[in-house]
Amino acid sequence: HSDEGKLEREDLYDFAELMIKYLAHKIRVRNNQLKHHTDRDHFYQIMRNSPYKALWRATVTPTTQVVPLLKSYLYSRTLHGQLHTYTLASAIIYMERLAATDPDMLQINTYNFRQIVSVCITLADKFNQDLTPTNSYYAQLAGIDTQRFNQFEMMVFRALNYKLYVTEEDAIAQMEAIDHAYGDSATSFENHLDHQPPAEASDSNTPI
Length: 208
What we know:
- The chain is globular, with a radius of gyration of 16 Å.
- Helix 4 packs across helix 5 and helix 5 packs across helix 7.
- The longest helix has 27 residues.
- With 208 residues, it is mostly helical.
Protein backbone atom coordinates (compact mmCIF):
# COMPACT_ATOMS: atom_id res chain seq x y z
CA HIS A 1 0.00 0.00 0.00
CA SER A 2 1.13 3.56 -0.65
CA ASP A 3 1.63 6.18 2.05
CA GLU A 4 -1.68 7.79 1.15
CA GLY A 5 -3.59 4.57 1.70
CA LYS A 6 -4.29 3.83 -1.96
CA LEU A 7 -4.28 0.22 -2.96
CA GLU A 8 -1.84 -0.94 -5.57
CA ARG A 9 -3.69 -1.85 -8.77
CA GLU A 10 -3.43 -5.62 -8.26
CA ASP A 11 -4.46 -5.33 -4.59
CA LEU A 12 -7.42 -3.17 -5.56
CA TYR A 13 -8.56 -5.77 -8.06
CA ASP A 14 -8.24 -8.44 -5.38
CA PHE A 15 -10.41 -6.47 -2.98
CA ALA A 16 -12.87 -5.70 -5.77
CA GLU A 17 -13.23 -9.46 -6.26
CA LEU A 18 -13.97 -9.90 -2.56
CA MET A 19 -16.48 -7.06 -2.69
CA ILE A 20 -18.20 -8.71 -5.66
CA LYS A 21 -18.53 -11.97 -3.71
CA TYR A 22 -19.88 -10.06 -0.72
CA LEU A 23 -22.46 -8.19 -2.82
CA ALA A 24 -23.49 -11.30 -4.73
CA HIS A 25 -24.06 -13.11 -1.45
CA LYS A 26 -26.18 -10.24 -0.10
CA ILE A 27 -28.25 -10.25 -3.28
CA ARG A 28 -28.72 -14.01 -3.11
CA VAL A 29 -29.90 -13.86 0.50
CA ARG A 30 -32.34 -11.02 -0.20
CA ASN A 31 -33.67 -12.76 -3.31
CA ASN A 32 -34.42 -15.84 -1.24
CA GLN A 33 -36.25 -13.73 1.32
CA LEU A 34 -38.37 -12.09 -1.35
CA LYS A 35 -39.03 -15.38 -3.09
CA HIS A 36 -40.48 -16.83 0.11
CA HIS A 37 -42.30 -13.69 1.24
CA THR A 38 -45.59 -14.85 2.74
CA ASP A 39 -47.62 -11.71 2.06
CA ARG A 40 -46.91 -10.41 -1.45
CA ASP A 41 -49.82 -7.95 -1.46
CA HIS A 42 -48.55 -6.34 1.73
CA PHE A 43 -45.04 -6.14 0.30
CA TYR A 44 -46.24 -4.47 -2.90
CA GLN A 45 -48.24 -1.97 -0.84
CA ILE A 46 -45.06 -1.11 1.05
CA MET A 47 -43.26 -0.66 -2.26
CA ARG A 48 -45.95 1.56 -3.77
CA ASN A 49 -45.86 3.86 -0.72
CA SER A 50 -42.11 3.91 -0.29
CA PRO A 51 -40.10 7.09 -0.94
CA TYR A 52 -37.38 4.80 -2.33
CA LYS A 53 -39.45 2.98 -4.96
CA ALA A 54 -37.66 4.79 -7.81
CA LEU A 55 -34.51 2.92 -6.85
CA TRP A 56 -36.19 -0.31 -7.99
CA ARG A 57 -36.06 -1.06 -11.71
CA ALA A 58 -39.22 -2.21 -13.46
CA THR A 59 -37.53 -5.37 -14.72
CA VAL A 60 -35.22 -7.72 -12.88
CA THR A 61 -31.60 -8.13 -13.88
CA PRO A 62 -31.07 -11.71 -15.10
CA THR A 63 -29.22 -13.55 -12.37
CA THR A 64 -26.51 -14.65 -14.77
CA GLN A 65 -25.65 -10.98 -15.38
CA VAL A 66 -25.29 -9.91 -11.74
CA VAL A 67 -21.65 -10.85 -11.22
CA PRO A 68 -20.47 -9.74 -14.71
CA LEU A 69 -22.16 -6.35 -14.23
CA LEU A 70 -20.57 -5.89 -10.81
CA LYS A 71 -17.17 -6.80 -12.23
CA SER A 72 -17.54 -4.46 -15.17
CA TYR A 73 -18.54 -1.52 -12.98
CA LEU A 74 -15.98 -2.03 -10.21
CA TYR A 75 -13.15 -2.62 -12.65
CA SER A 76 -14.07 0.51 -14.61
CA ARG A 77 -14.02 2.45 -11.35
CA THR A 78 -10.59 1.12 -10.41
CA LEU A 79 -9.27 2.08 -13.83
CA HIS A 80 -10.89 5.52 -14.12
CA GLY A 81 -11.70 6.54 -10.57
CA GLN A 82 -8.45 5.58 -8.79
CA LEU A 83 -10.45 4.35 -5.85
CA HIS A 84 -9.13 4.42 -2.30
CA THR A 85 -9.48 1.61 0.20
CA TYR A 86 -11.77 3.84 2.26
CA THR A 87 -14.03 4.41 -0.73
CA LEU A 88 -14.89 0.73 -1.10
CA ALA A 89 -15.04 0.06 2.64
CA SER A 90 -17.21 3.13 3.23
CA ALA A 91 -19.54 2.19 0.37
CA ILE A 92 -20.12 -1.23 1.89
CA ILE A 93 -20.84 0.34 5.29
CA TYR A 94 -23.33 2.71 3.62
CA MET A 95 -25.12 -0.30 2.14
CA GLU A 96 -25.29 -1.92 5.57
CA ARG A 97 -26.72 1.29 7.02
CA LEU A 98 -29.31 1.47 4.25
CA ALA A 99 -30.42 -2.10 4.86
CA ALA A 100 -30.85 -1.32 8.55
CA THR A 101 -32.78 1.88 7.77
CA ASP A 102 -35.36 0.25 5.49
CA PRO A 103 -35.03 -3.55 5.30
CA ASP A 104 -37.90 -3.87 2.82
CA MET A 105 -36.70 -1.41 0.18
CA LEU A 106 -32.99 -0.75 0.70
CA GLN A 107 -31.47 -4.20 0.97
CA ILE A 108 -29.72 -4.86 -2.32
CA ASN A 109 -31.42 -7.29 -4.71
CA THR A 110 -31.59 -7.89 -8.45
CA TYR A 111 -33.93 -4.91 -8.91
CA ASN A 112 -31.99 -2.22 -7.07
CA PHE A 113 -28.35 -3.29 -6.74
CA ARG A 114 -27.19 -1.32 -9.80
CA GLN A 115 -28.49 1.97 -8.44
CA ILE A 116 -27.51 1.42 -4.81
CA VAL A 117 -23.99 0.12 -5.49
CA SER A 118 -23.08 2.91 -7.92
CA VAL A 119 -24.51 5.67 -5.72
CA CYS A 120 -22.90 4.39 -2.51
CA ILE A 121 -19.48 4.19 -4.18
CA THR A 122 -19.99 7.68 -5.61
CA LEU A 123 -20.93 9.15 -2.22
CA ALA A 124 -17.95 7.47 -0.59
CA ASP A 125 -15.66 8.72 -3.35
CA LYS A 126 -16.89 12.29 -2.89
CA PHE A 127 -16.57 12.15 0.88
CA ASN A 128 -13.07 10.67 0.94
CA GLN A 129 -11.43 12.73 -1.79
CA ASP A 130 -10.83 16.47 -2.05
CA LEU A 131 -11.33 16.64 -5.81
CA THR A 132 -13.91 14.52 -7.59
CA PRO A 133 -15.47 14.46 -11.09
CA THR A 134 -18.92 15.76 -11.92
CA ASN A 135 -22.01 13.63 -11.50
CA SER A 136 -22.30 13.27 -15.26
CA TYR A 137 -19.01 11.37 -15.13
CA TYR A 138 -20.19 9.11 -12.30
CA ALA A 139 -23.50 8.56 -14.10
CA GLN A 140 -21.73 7.65 -17.32
CA LEU A 141 -19.61 5.02 -15.55
CA ALA A 142 -22.77 3.59 -14.01
CA GLY A 143 -24.66 3.68 -17.31
CA ILE A 144 -27.43 5.78 -15.78
CA ASP A 145 -28.94 9.00 -17.08
CA THR A 146 -27.45 11.92 -15.15
CA GLN A 147 -30.80 13.31 -14.01
CA ARG A 148 -31.88 9.90 -12.73
CA PHE A 149 -28.50 9.38 -11.08
CA ASN A 150 -28.86 12.71 -9.26
CA GLN A 151 -32.29 11.62 -8.05
CA PHE A 152 -30.95 8.27 -6.80
CA GLU A 153 -28.02 9.96 -5.09
CA MET A 154 -30.27 12.32 -3.14
CA MET A 155 -32.56 9.43 -2.13
CA VAL A 156 -29.65 7.45 -0.74
CA PHE A 157 -28.09 10.50 0.91
CA ARG A 158 -31.34 11.23 2.73
CA ALA A 159 -31.81 7.59 3.70
CA LEU A 160 -28.35 7.72 5.27
CA ASN A 161 -29.52 10.78 7.22
CA TYR A 162 -26.74 12.74 5.49
CA LYS A 163 -24.13 10.89 7.55
CA LEU A 164 -21.21 9.70 5.43
CA TYR A 165 -18.40 9.65 7.98
CA VAL A 166 -16.83 6.25 8.58
CA THR A 167 -14.19 5.81 11.27
CA GLU A 168 -10.86 4.23 10.45
CA GLU A 169 -11.64 1.42 12.88
CA ASP A 170 -14.98 0.68 11.21
CA ALA A 171 -13.45 0.74 7.72
CA ILE A 172 -10.68 -1.66 8.72
CA ALA A 173 -13.12 -3.93 10.54
CA GLN A 174 -15.38 -4.07 7.47
CA MET A 175 -12.52 -4.95 5.15
CA GLU A 176 -11.20 -7.59 7.52
CA ALA A 177 -14.67 -9.13 7.88
CA ILE A 178 -15.05 -9.41 4.11
CA ASP A 179 -11.55 -10.82 3.73
CA HIS A 180 -12.25 -13.35 6.48
CA ALA A 181 -15.57 -14.39 4.89
CA TYR A 182 -14.54 -14.50 1.25
CA GLY A 183 -10.77 -14.20 1.02
CA ASP A 184 -10.06 -17.91 0.99
CA SER A 185 -13.24 -18.97 -0.77
CA ALA A 186 -13.40 -19.95 -4.41
CA THR A 187 -17.19 -20.09 -4.33
CA SER A 188 -18.95 -18.22 -7.09
CA PHE A 189 -22.49 -17.00 -6.34
CA GLU A 190 -23.15 -16.20 -9.98
CA ASN A 191 -25.15 -19.37 -10.61
CA HIS A 192 -26.86 -19.44 -7.21
CA LEU A 193 -28.98 -16.30 -7.42
CA ASP A 194 -32.66 -17.09 -7.19
CA HIS A 195 -35.27 -15.26 -9.23
CA GLN A 196 -37.69 -13.05 -7.34
CA PRO A 197 -41.30 -12.09 -8.02
CA PRO A 198 -41.98 -9.24 -10.45
CA ALA A 199 -42.03 -5.81 -8.82
CA GLU A 200 -44.10 -2.72 -9.29
CA ALA A 201 -41.31 -0.23 -9.56
CA SER A 202 -39.36 2.38 -11.47
CA ASP A 203 -39.17 2.23 -15.24
CA SER A 204 -35.40 2.67 -15.14
CA ASN A 205 -33.70 -0.14 -17.02
CA THR A 206 -30.21 1.25 -17.50
CA PRO A 207 -27.17 -0.92 -16.78
CA ILE A 208 -24.72 -0.32 -13.99
